[in-house]
Amino acid sequence: MSLEDTLYPLLKLYEAAPQPVKSLAGRAYRAIPASLRYGAAYTRFQTEAWEVEAWDAETIRRYQVVALRDSLTAAAKAPFYAERFAACGVDPAKFESLEQLKDYPLLTKQDLLLHREQMVNPEFPAKHRLYITTGGSSGVPVGFYLHKGVSRPKEQAYLEAQWSRRGYRVGDRVAVIRGGVTSSKAQGDISYYDATRNWLILSSYHLTPERLPEYVAALNRFRPLHLHAYPSAALMLARGLAQAGLKLDFPLTSLLCGSEKLTAVSQQHLEQFFGARVCHWYGHSERVVLAAQGRSSNHLHFWPTYGFVEFGEANTDGHREIIGTSFHNHVMPLIRYRTGDLAKMTNDECGMANAVVSEVVGRDYEFLISATGRRISLTAINMHDRIFDGLLAVQFFQERPGEVECRFQPGPQWQSSREEAMRAGLQKKLGDDFTLTLREVKEVEKTSAGKHKWLVTKVGMQPLAS
After folding, report:
1. pTM for the structure as a whole
2. Residues in CB range of 95: below 8 A, 6 or more apart
3. When you count CB atoms within 10 A of the terminal residue's CB, does the N or C end of the chain come out lower?
């Protein structure tokens, strides 16, 4: 098991420590070789990610068949999958070609909500499991287990490999605007230094015109090579700088933008404004599949050795659902998992070993507005812990700035004693210029197509970019 996974339970304690303590502990941690911090799996996946771009289609296909067979075999040991596989008459031991995967049943978020514990491979005890949640950005908060010592080092290796396409090098200075809580007060600190990674963490919650000079000063002092940000945060920063006539006094090498959609127009705007290339990618907390823009193309190329991607039938707009099967997580494999995300396909015909899409079609940027005018991205609000455990759906409703109602739909495993923990966790991120109300509902409001809505708002706002 990696040192990082061993220390993961102490992360919140580290984040709450005074800056001098964080700096001292962080520098000591960063001095430890990466192979020890991330474990042997990190080195393996780092090598794999660097080499796979040179593999031919047949080598990739052979790799995928073996990886899929391993995932299917691990899944079949869990009661949920064993029953489902038997009902479909499939046997992982006989899996010999990629085309056979279509004979296996699809998996939904509802399956994870209702049968999570029955989907765990019993050969792995609790010490090998790392519990994570999706945060609920689809309106449905889903919990699942990652494979300790494997899933997170793998993610790190592949992220670094795709960032390198835009000039990133391990150890580079990075400024981050991705939901880090620097203060729960509207007038609190906007940043802190994370010495474990040599990153400057900037608040996603205080990026207002009044406080923009503080962001510029912090960035100019730190002089990062890369800005790692939600697309919405990067666009807010660019628009704010332009409107205030402010600028950074150093050049950026790249902007690393993930976790939200990024249109071609918005990407072009960011690249022109900051004079640096954008690396945009698609991934998710479940770590089933991962795609990133290519070295010379802005299309999203799925990593063929990270997980296996399929696409559902085209809808009326021609978009197809992304369906993924995880590799390497043998604690809780996700087999033919319906992500709910839609892809806009390219005009090129791509085989199974070379899946490419022009973009992932996501919802518009969604914000809550505080009493003092702060924009709080719902991407940043996502709670990657157990506070939403047992809920079938979560939805935010806002009619007036500074007032927000969190509507939640309990499931069979929900415990009402968790309500106060949910309130505290949300209030910490929202800040002291919000009044939060929790309301239990039988069902949250849905779209005309029956999909969950993460936000219902009647507060108008100016778009981030044209």
Report:
1. 0.86
2. 65, 68, 69, 72, 101
3. C
